[in-house]
Amino acid sequence: MASYATLLEKTRVPQPSIQRFAVISVFSKLRSAPEQFGSEAEAGREAISFCLTSESITVVDQSVHELCRLVSDSVLDLSRGLLELQSALEGCDSKLVSLFVKGLGFLIRIGYERNNGNWKFNSTENHPFVRIQSSRVETQTELLHQVSLFVMHNRRLGMVGVCEFLEPFLNFTILRIPLSDSSSSLFARELISSMASLCCSSRHEALPIFRLLMRCLKYIPGNNLEVIVKILVDAYTVVVRDLVGTGLEVTEVHLLGVQLVDGVLFLCASPHVQTTEQESVIESLKHLLAVQKDLGLAYSHDLSLVVLSLVFMLAKSTVEHEQLCILKFLLFLLKWKTESENLSVKDAAGSSVESLLLFPITALMSSPSKSIKVAASKVLSIVENFLVTVSNAPKIEVHTSKGDSPLSRVGSVVFRFMQQLWHQNDYTPSTSSFLRVAYTNGSEKQETYLGPVTWNSLLREHAERFWDKKKLSASFCLSQEIPILLGAVAGVMVMHPSLGADAIGSLTIIGGIDSKMSVPLLLAVLYFSNLLSRTNVPCQSLLSKLLGLLPSLAAQQVMIPLVVQTITPMLRKDAKGLLYATAIRLLCQTWVVNDRAFSSLQEVLRPQGFIEYISERHICISMAASIHDVCKRHPDRGVDLILSVQACIESQNCPVRALGFQSLSHLCEADVIDFYTAWDVIKKHAQHIKLDPLLAYSVCHLLKWGAMDAEAYPEDAENVLNILWEIGSSMQKPHDSQWTKARVSAIVALGQYEVSFMENKFSDFNKNCTYLLFSETNAEILNALEDLSIKIMIHEHSVRRRYVREKKVPGSKIEKLLDVIPQVIFPAGKEIKTGELPGAALLCLSYNPRDVKFGSSRSFHDVHFQYEEAFRVVVKSLQLSRNISLALISLQSLKAFMRRWMRANILSIDATTKELSSDKTSKATNNIMKSLVHMAEEALPRCAENIALALGALCAALPAASHNIKASASKFLLSWLLEHEHEHRQWTAGISLGLISSSLHVTDHKQKFQNISGLLEVLCSSKSTLVKGACGVGLGFSCQDLLTRTEASASSDIDSDSYRNQEERLLGRIVRLLSSILHGFLHTPCDILESLSALFPPGEEDNVIGLPQLLDESSDDFDDDTWGIAGLIIGLGMSVGAIYRAGKKDAVVKIKNLIVSWIPYADSLKQTSGSNSKVSVRLFSVGSCLALPIVITFCQKVELFDAHEVDDIIGCFKDLISELLIVRKSGALRKRLLMASCIGAGDLLGSVLNEGIHPVKIESVKELLELFKKCYSGLYPPVAHFGGMLGVVNVLGAGAGNLVYSHPRPRAPPASSEENEISYVSGPLLSNAYFTQQLTPVVQEIFLIAQNTKDRQLQHYAAWAISILRTYMRSGESSSLSNENQSDDSDRNSISHNVPEHTMVMKLAQGLTNPSFPLAGSPLNIGTMASALRCLSHAPRLPNLDWGATIRRLMKQETQTDVTQSGDVPKEITLREECFKFSLAHASEFDELLAFLDELSELSRFKALEESLQSCLLCHLGGLMRIFSGSRMNKLFDDVSCFVVSLSSDQTYSCDQKSSLRVSCWKGLSQCLEETSLESSEYVTKIEKCIELLFAVLPVASQSPRADQMGSVKEWSEAVTCLQKSHRDWLYKFLQVSNLEPGNEKTNFQGDLKKIQAKAKLAKLGSVPFSELGKLKAIILNCEESDIWDVLIEIVAALHHAEGGIKRQWLIDAVEISCVSSHPSTAIIFVGLLSSICCEYMPFLNLDRSTVLSDMSVTVTSLLSDPSYEVVTEPFISFLWTSLERVYSFATESDANARLSSQQIAQSERDKAPMLVKVMHYICVAFRDHLPLEKQLRLASMDMS
């Protein structure tokens, strides 16, 4: 600095000229000095600083000039110059401030020029103008001048660039206002005024400056907005006048003015803006538009947004002069619009935002200000035209332009919502609404909302919730504008052609939301009444509905006079009749709302009115209806009108009389009038009620109240009952709805009287009621009769006699004969050896240890020895004759013998030791097993055959859990089966081995597979036809246990799928081999056998050795061929059950048809390829006769057998047996065929009769019995005699030789049964009184033959046959191995179900069980039968009838085409479903019903049911759980699991049917969870497994309002209900979600989404705490929004019902997560969703992905302005700002930079980022006061263009 010292010293000289020269010299030296002494050197810098910091103004002034010259000449760097001047400015004296500001201004202009108008700064604080302003307050005056100079000097470079340069400075100036003193505010105003002045001076370059100022408006504090707007408007006025005058930029300046008005109103009409005086702002904006209009500019459609903002401001305003100002503005806009010459009808409709003004303007008509009323009326007259235009052009799609801003405003949201409501009938909505989400998604009222939901219903729910909150917190209230805006929407919708009525209902709801709306609503009613009365309005029909709104307004006490005053003019005597009648009804409804109106109503309803207006039908009816309402709602008030009631009853007008009777009925119901006293007075007016259905209905409604005092007035009560019965039973009346209603009323009235009283007054009351029910076809009447019948049944049960338990006495001669058979055949005193009657001995001999003493083991050995010796004798003498039929009968007999042997052993062990039941059974069975094996080792061939059968019988009689015994027996029999050299061992061992396989335990897979594999091996390899046939029978037995269990039955070491696959492969081998072998024996083509083989493709293990040549009939071995083929056919027939379970129903039908075709003389019934061969028929006929009953029995159970087939097949058997009996030609085949046909015919007929499905002709039964009698009494071989006897026994149900199906013991026929002439019989013959008498001689004859010792062989067969029948009849008494806890079921049935004949239960039961019951009529229709079943389902007890057969017949009956169907029966109610429900109700009492349910719920049978019955069964899983055993329930749950899994891929069901079935399954599982306790862990595990499988196929819940989503809604509803009842620990574990990764194969993304949705729904219902849902926040909000949209909605719906603290925490957490999430849009959208559903504007918001973000400008700002959310506003805005910076950086940087700097934001967010930034920026600006200034400046610096 030394080199400059001299010159610097001269600056101190107090001489200005010397000082200036010194400064010039210093800077000249700096300019020319070498580098070490230049301006950049330390000496140079010090010299400059010295000059600038001088106290002399002259020095400083010259120094600033010289410094600027250095910079201008590029000697000094610009930044250095700015720095020097800025530093000097900050430390200078205030009088020097202007010098430095001028210098800085000059340098700034130079810098801008050098950068060609593109001078940018990295932060607002570094902006030179900002630095100047920030330095000190004194700079403001000169700074304004420099800014103006800057603009004027640099405008040549482009005004747009100049404005961009100044924008940060302008924003800084505005943002500093709230943080500094008033001078900042003043400076800001002056700055804006200065720039506005520049616009005036540079009119052609003014538009960019205007846009700059408009962009800054959003940062201006509200109290400064008024002045700023006035400045801008004034400047705009100058500019627009000039530009329009010159014709330049007219369009741009026009649009700019509209944008200015819109932008200012957008700020004023924002939800977060507090209500302030905005009158001057509105006036300024109006002035701007007035200038445009004066200049001839056209009305812009963009002004529709201005109107929307004014609508909101008008609704929100409470200040009169502000309201008046807005009205004037609106009036100006509307006039301008209507004056536009180019406004067409379509344009008016397209811009019909004005229609929203209707209700707010109408509301202002109640203002006390005359000026407001005048202005409002003017606006209303113009709006009316728009409204009429819209109503006449409803299909013109309405839309509004949103201009440049995509952000929503309250007005646009309301208008958009109104548009969608208006067009919802013309366009399918693609969006839902938040109201729907809040109140119909999993709420307690969800069932109500399944299907289309109207805004009206949702708004009503919203209003109810509002009042609930109001009750909890008195301070809770809605903003003033909400009900007004709701009214604005409803007011427009009133004019809708089809939705007007709903809109009027909405107005009623709005009145309930805010009591202050009553007067506006009254005015709206008056206005619309006037409007709708005009001819040019197409909605005149709504007038009455609109007037109906008046009474609802009377809820407010102050409104009563106004409402009554409004109605009163319509009650003038000169008023029109219809108007007068309407007024009466309105007055009545007003009284309903408020009792203060009663005096006015009573005056109108005086009795004289009926005389005065006798010719005015409408008025009389209106008066009567009002009297009726009063009596119904307030009986005490009704007493005051009793004379008017009497006047109604005395009227000649039937409707008036009817209403009078109904009014009196309500008074009697309330007991304010005595019924019989009143009846004495008015009964003369009820004499002709049968002429008018309405009158009959009303009188019956009255007469039911006579029940209370009927005993006190018996004569009058009897007359009343006669009237009711006459009307209720009058079936001759026309079948119209009115008479139906009358009859129902009469029957319901009868139900009010005591049953005992009616029985005393009516003879045969029960019989008449039953006849009426069975004769009726109308569904409504049937329902009423059901209730009456149920009441009668309950009464009968309550007064029933207590029957004394008596010793059971055989009820018929047949039973007496059967009881004495053992004593007669094996008398104690005679030496009749067991060996002579071996068959009977097996069934009759019994040795009981009568002398057993405790601790004695001798008795056990004695009894065991007795049985062993008897068995030795039997096996030696019982000849099977290589006859498979005899073998099966012997096996059946041996099973009964083994059961008695075991029981005797167990009883003996009981007396000697105290062991467990299972141990006793095992010990007893081991002893028998040892004896049998010991005997078998050295047995002769005949004995060996029987011993092999005995082993099978022993195992079949054992419990399934006896593993060891069955395994040992199987091993022993397998060894015999594989001894090909011992044929006598092989064939019976094969049969027994199959029988054992069918009775193995569920876990004995290995043993079962070994047994079947052995049978298949021998079937393929044996050269003996008999052995092949026996193996076929054994395989048929084995099939009974194939595919009967699902995966839950698989053991732990065998995979469930592989286990079932093994069984399916085994079944395939069995059917394929049997079909192939039969086809080989047939030697002729057979399409069915070939198709059966094709259904089960061959495997590598099948290798059938060449079939032996069939021998001639005369050959000795011909029997082997006959019975061998018969065995194969029987085996094939036995396999139908397994084939059906495998899902091959068609194969079952083919087998049935094939076997039928092999019966001789059956060709006319079924034609099958290959059946014409005589050889085939002869050889295959024996087996087909024996196999057919098995196949038909199964087909009956699964409904594959039609009624018309019964008579045809029975006819075939009759023809066959008749021919065999007539032709006495001897021959082995005829002998065997005669035996087989008799056995088969008897078994078939017995099966059909016992099932009870198909009635059989009486003559057919008689003819068959006669043929059987001829067979066993004629000169035929003994085996033929045996066949005839077995035919008789089988007809009675014994099922001789049929080990697959057994029939329940027949019930004794009713003691008082009448012998009526009948042509058909259904049910067991021994349960039929007629046939019991017919059969007694037949049984006696066989009984006598069994006593005849002349022919030992015939005696043997007769004794055996009669013993089989005896065993069958005693089957209920000996079904258990031990007598522990054994109850006598027969006694229970005969006593506990002993129901008198005259009772209602018995009459109904007879009508259903007996098709020929006289009361039933002919024929019964489905509706009648279903009603009878419903009645009996409620019966406390049922008579002891054959209910199993009845239910099966009814199940089949509905599917028959000849059954009449009542047209009134609802389609969703089916007879088959009622059969199921009836069975479920009484299955615990009747085993046959339990068996029916067991069959129906078998998986294969269940799959074949119709969808409605499947749904019914699934819905009642809980009921089945109450009656099924534990093991059966396990299997049922496994079957349900399999069905659920297979349902998804089943193509036979439609999507709706699948959904319906899943819904039913959810309902059923819910029932099961209710029935299941915590201790039932096994059931719970099974149920939870079903729930998991159902949940896996549950569709992801969607909020789409489409109709195809209704199934999903129902599924979710039931699923959530079910999950609510599940155990908490399992539920939390099941719904646990660790992460969400779409596309990751290791995770089930869709399943996880459903779990989250389920958890949200459960949280909404309170079943799961919100803390559980909160654990998933981070996981959910870090996913892409498109993947989890529905999940977000579900969570928001749940949070809507949460406490406020939970909502606020979710709001904060969501926006915080957006700061780090890779998908920030998801979190922000969630914030938008949550804000939408929680804010006040929720009723107007649509749930649409495209609008949720844009609506956040309304929803979030509204929510954060709520006082309850103010506590979280600051942290929310802080996190939102952080997220905004992150997303803004991502959106504005290049892809490469964004990947590095934006913290892992996914690239998929790039398209959403601009909108995200815009929304977040708006919210941050709106709540900028919660941010520090530096963040506000960065906020303002963000480029939002």
In short:
The protein is an all-alpha fold and 1841 residues long.
Please mark out the parts with pLDDT under 50 across 5 or more consecutive residues, or reply none.
343-350, 394-404, 442-451, 803-810, 851-856, 1048-1054, 1110-1114, 1162-1175, 1374-1392, 1413-1417, 1462-1467
Helix/strand/pairing category: mainly alpha
Question: What is the count of DSSP helices, taking H or I runs of 4+ residues?
Answer: 90
Alpha carbon gap, first and last residue: 52 Å
Helix amount, in percent? 55-70%
Please name the defining characteristics of this protein.
90 helices, 0% strand, mainly alpha, single chain, two-stranded antiparallel ribbon, 1841 residues
Overview of the molecule:
The chain has 1841 residues and is an all-alpha fold. The protein is built from 90 helices and four strands. Helix 16 packs parallel to helix 19. It is elongated and about 170 Å long. The chain starts with a helix and ends with a helix. One of its GO terms (cellular component) is cytosol. The chain crosses the membrane at residues 250-270, 296-316, 347-367, 479-499, 513-533, 546-566, 943-963, 982-1002, 1123-1143, 1175-1195, 1229-1249, 1277-1297, 1719-1739.
